[in-house]
User: Fold this.
Amino acid sequence: MTLIIAIGVATGCVYSLVAVGYSLIYRTTGVVNFAQGSYVMAGGFSTYWFYEIAGLPYPVAILCGVGVATMLGLALWTVVVLPLWRQRSPSYVVLLETIVFGAIVGTSALLLLGPLPQTLPPWLPGFALEFGGNRIDGQYVVVVVATVLLMLAFSAVLRFTSLGRSMRACAASRDVAQLLGISPERIGAIAFTATAALGGLGGAMITPAQFTSADIGLSFGVFGFVAAVLGGFGSLPGALVGGLLLGVINAFVGRYISSSYQTVLAFGLLLVLLTLRPQGLVGKDWEEA
Amino acid sequence: MSAAAELELNGVTKRYGGVIAVSGVSIALSADAVTGLIGPNGAGKSTLINLISGFRRPDSGGIMFGDRDLTRLDPSAIARLGISRTFQQAAPLVGLSVIENVMVGLHTRYHAGLGSILLRLPSMRQEARASEQIAGGLLEEFGLGDEADTEASGLPFGKLRFLELARATAMQPQMLLLDEPAAGLNRVETDQLAALIRKLRERGVTILLVDHDVPFVFGLCDRVVVMNFGSVIAAGKPDDVYGDPAVREAYLGGEEQGAAA
Amino acid sequence: MIGLSGRRVEVVAFVLVVIAVIGAPLSGSRLFVYYFTLTALYASVVIALNLLLGLAGQVSFAQTTFMAIGGYGSALMTVRLGWNPWLAMMLAMLLAALAALVIGRPLLRLRGHYLSMATFALALGTYSFVTAAMELTNGGIGISGIPPLEIGDISFAEPGMFYILAWILCGLTLAGYALLADSHIGRAWRALATGQDIAATLGIDVPGYKLLAFILAAVIASIVGSFYVEFTSFVGPDLYDINIILSLFFMLFVGGRGSTIGPVVGAGVVVIVPQLMSGLERYQNLIFFVILLLLLLIRPAGLFGRVRESVPLSAILPGWLRASRRAGAA
Assistant:
């Protein structure tokens, strides 16, 4: 039982990181980025490559792995979203393009690294928690602690730095922000890069506890998205709440029903949320007819 | 045309957060007449039009069109009762041509159902031909005959206003709510507009005209209502209202900044 | 005006398509007949999507959901219950219409992103569901042995006969689209796509019309879903996976949204071109995705689409900027 909760909370943390990505990008650029999940895959899978295949020292491999994910985020912004922005493309075209980008990343990973799942060594070897008679893998704890720290750091940046203020200005109104001398395009690039790094780090962290493979991108993207909507799309505290909640629910569904029903449940939940309460648990009212 | 119904507002109030946009407004619009609604910016004029046309719901008070209460109805239901309106921004339906815009205005006059369209029944084809003729006639009347097939969003601003009016008229409404139809028009266009509105009145359409152009309103309307700060401060024949001290006070006592009507 | 007669290029394309459709079976090539049959089926779904998205402006990723209702519905009713395939198809169609009615009402109240996301969730959820619900759908294994459609002595299992059936369906769908697009209903859809408020003040029941488009698209998708599984006598989750969801949009965009013949040409391109690249099967998906990505970036109007975007610049500007533009123009 405790183990299920631990798994749920840890994976939930990764969902939160993805959800934060969705919400931040949506608030600052108005884009819904369905490639968010592919950063998780890229972070984990390329770390595997750097460590196992290229033979780099583990910490370096992790940095490189996160770096790959970050580069992907920047690429998505520069090559896809920015041109579409400039063309004033309808929002669903941008959405579609992010989906396609995610699919490209996933397919490329499949071609380059093969279909088999891989795993990585734990960050703190031998570390484990005894809790209620159960032995909980230390990596789960690492994930939770790291996520909490990252979230705090993120909030601090948003609240106290001028960059954070610029981002909040863009989130409130892109045009007013422009008048204030803020470049929405620069903010967009930063948002995409930062959220990609977050996702990549999440992937690198969770892989030792579970596994990574070419096709987890869609799954994390979906669950992260549901988490974001659950907490209130665009709300950062909501992303955390939604992620943890979904992680735990998923863990229980996976244990007591079946893992294939996890996705069904997630989509069902999403559909219900979007039609009945699009503003989620924490968030405020968004566009509705 | 059949006699137009009266519109009655009783104690209509609308608040936005802490701001009272419209407060206890009671007006009666007489049939087949043009009633003008004027007032400084922020007086509540556009809110009133939004309330009547169903885009906003009043917090209290009633809006009766004949014996129908409009306050519970959504905009398309109100439109189908015979009340048409124009918008301040004179936005055309983008992607449709000028004549198509007007034909959308004819929508409520079509009776062909899905079946007759798919089977191309003679009744449907006849209706389609007749509509094209009606639309063409309307365009001529409103001075848009030459632009029938051009993309509507490409029209110069003045013509957009006339297109909007033509489209709203196509519905054969019993009542027409005009939200600043003269804004942005030059002298010549304003006179043309006035002539068209007079023609509509002769056809028995009840008209509520909101505008800032005081000579335009006073020259055209049978009755004028003046609003300020959400309330009616004067109502009556143009000459009477013109001399009303409260009205002078409202207009001479300083222009309102900021908020749109 | 929309309609085949309106644009010369589309007329030429239409003629070429007719020639190709007549020519394929005459050429004696079974491969051609097979691919053209697939083209006809997918084209029908995309024509319906074009009605919903291109005319009425409602972005729905959920056509595969209704294809699945048709496909699995037909499969289950014929294989498990032993019913007549035509009856099964019609019942599945009714089921799809009902589902569209029930889901559509709340769904279509959503605007912009939320509608896209909700329908995307619906489509992916459908895939997950048919994969997971082993007892009902046999999961990833799928259901085989679906009996073919027959009329008297004619069995549509025969490729030549099915070819005719598929193209009759496509032709009827295309005709239906063209007739509706040219009618007051088509104009009502186009009106609510660009100016929902204006449409409402002209007496158009906006939610009702959105729902009508949604249901029509669902019904066509369901019929195609049934036809498809009758054709191949097999149904499985992969018929409704992310690749198909994206393919439908690919076909729509290649052909051009809002055009009439576009979906047919788009379907043809997406079905046939990958087959010409033999030896590259491993990379097929990747190439497909990359081309789609580039297409939307470089030529979003596709082959026959209108170049003008349906979102005017003025609709994106905030109020104060719009006012100063207006003052400048007056």
In short: Chain B has two domains: 7-90+174-252, 93-154. The first strand of chain B starts at residue 7 and ends at 16. Residues 93-154 of chain B form one domain. Chain B has ten helices and ten strands.
